[in-house]
């Protein structure tokens, strides 16, 4: 039976504030217990950059064919599931969706993403305070991924709500209730997508669902069921993560590096560096694998079948990889080497899309507004919601300065 690893139980970070800023715990773990065995859950935890990277790269030792996982989304055992497979089988599955995310196909989407960003940002004009999460960070990725798949973006409240439920983290107290809630969301999501897939079989269009209908997999077309599952996976995968990135970009501009906004105003070419540094510095994420054979590669005896969690956000602040790692610095030479999009065979397929969305959103915003400021009395803990790997901003009101 599948089982979900409860990350908060391992970290013992209880308060919202600690979960939002887990960085001193990460530092302590890197320094004192970089390879930590949690006996209660029978899970190894690694915090150093080199170790996390090895876990992600080395599928012979650390496999994705796992029964237990951090991933709170109910699992499907379809032959097309990307997450729970290893190469060489994984390569075929990945090829199914990889075409949609090549740089060339993305370039054709750039003008559409720009148009959506323009529209969302134009709606902010004339306002003095906007909630940047609700007005930009949530709608942009949802509208974009709906467009890419060919699902009506007017229905976005629906699939955003289902995705949110699917990603809700489990906690011991709410486990059974969440199992039920998630099963219901899965069913409703399915019932929504199924007729869309059937319709596209009759009338294919220029979108990812129609592409999936056209491809052959293992010498036969994908079933409706499989197309629904892949589409649902993409609708969900592209949402919460990109929302977190865009929200955190604004948080970093105002809290981690005040003054950077004016630097961007005078040189927009610094926007991509800013996005990369936010991905390195402030992006809560952890990935898991199953130990595939007994090993002591990290100096401890890990047994076949045990789980290992790579604490990516801790690895991203490892001083041996990033000098002055605890400082937010867009000018560091190697900030693209963060592990936030993973590494190795499962490297995030949506990374070019997420980067493009964040770059377009920030560039468009910076061109429009002379400055931004925190609102008086802003307390981050009042604006957080529990997310799969910690806390994320559910709202973030900011002051807009027009001239
Ligand atoms: C895989 C992070 C946005 C689709 C991954 C993985 C990470 C990740 C860490 C690797 C998982 C593992 O090794 O087990 C992120 C972050 C994002 C983001 C931080 C935004 C800031 C997106 C978007 C899409 C997407 C926009 C597509 C719509 C995927 C897919 C995989 C994946 C399909 C599976 C790849 C595979 O297993 O081969 N993502 N992701 N992601 N991501 Fe993303």
TrEMBL record:
GO molecular function annotations of the record: heme binding; iron ion binding; monooxygenase activity; oxidoreductase activity, acting on paired donors, with incorporation or reduction of molecular oxygen
Keyword field contains Iron: yes
A Pfam family annotated for this UniProt entry: p450
Keywords: Heme, Iron, Metal-binding, Monooxygenase, Oxidoreductase
Keyword Calcium: no
Family statement drawn from the similarity comment of this UniProt entry: Belongs to the cytochrome P450 family.
Name of the protein in question: Cytochrome P450
Organism: Thermoactinomyces daqus
Lineage, broadest ranks: Bacteria, Bacillati, Bacillota, Bacilli, Bacillales
């Amino acid at each position: 039976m599948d089982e979900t690893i409860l990350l908060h139980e391992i970290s013992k970070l209880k308060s919202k504030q600690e979960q939002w800023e887990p960085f001193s715990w990460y530092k302590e773990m890197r320094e004192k217990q970089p390879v930590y065995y949690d006996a209660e859950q029978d899970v190894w935890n690694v915090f150093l950059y080199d170790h996390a990277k090895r876990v992600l790269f080395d599928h012979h030792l650390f496999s994705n064919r796992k029964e237990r996982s951090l991933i709170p989304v109910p699992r499907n055992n379809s032959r097309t599931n990307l997450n729970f497979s290893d190469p060489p089988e994984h390569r075929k599955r990945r090829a199914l969706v990889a075409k949609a995310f090549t740089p060339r196909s993305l370039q054709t989407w750039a003008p559409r993403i720009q148009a959506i960003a323009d529209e969302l940002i134009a709606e902010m004009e004339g306002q003095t305070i906007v909630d940047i999460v609700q007005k930009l960070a949530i709608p942009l990725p949802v509208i974009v991924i709906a467009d890419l798949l060919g699902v009506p973006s007017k229905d976005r409240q629906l699939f955003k709500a289902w995705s949110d439920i699917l990603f809700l983290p489990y906690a011991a107290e709410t486990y059974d209730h969440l199992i039920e809630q998630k099963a219901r969301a899965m069913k409703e999501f399915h019932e929504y997508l199924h007729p869309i897939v059937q319709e596209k079989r009759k009338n294919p269009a220029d979108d990812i669902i129609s592409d999936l209908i056209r491809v052959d997999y293992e010498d036969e077309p994908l079933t409706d069921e499989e197309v629904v599952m892949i589409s649902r996976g993409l609708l969900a995968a592209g949402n919460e993560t990109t929302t977190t990135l865009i929200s955190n970009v604004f948080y970093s501009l105002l809290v981690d590096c005040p003054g950077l906004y004016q630097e961007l105003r005078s040189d927009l070419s610094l926007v991509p560096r800013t996005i990369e540094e936010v991905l390195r510095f402030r992006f809560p994420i952890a990935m898991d694998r199953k130990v595939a054979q007994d090993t002591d590669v990290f100096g401890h005896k890990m047994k076949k079948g045990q789980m290992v969690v790579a604490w990516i956000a801790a690895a991203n602040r490892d001083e041996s990889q990033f000098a002055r790692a605890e400082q937010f610095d867009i000018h560091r030479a190697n900030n693209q080497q963060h592990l936030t999009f993973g590494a190795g065979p499962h490297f995030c397929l949506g990374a070019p899309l997420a980067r493009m969305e964040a770059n377009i959103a920030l560039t468009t915003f910076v061109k429009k507004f002379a400055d931004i400021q925190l609102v008086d009395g802003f307390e981050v803990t009042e604006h957080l919601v529990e997310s799969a790997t910690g806390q994320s901003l559910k709202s973030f009101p900011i002051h807009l300065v027009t001239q």
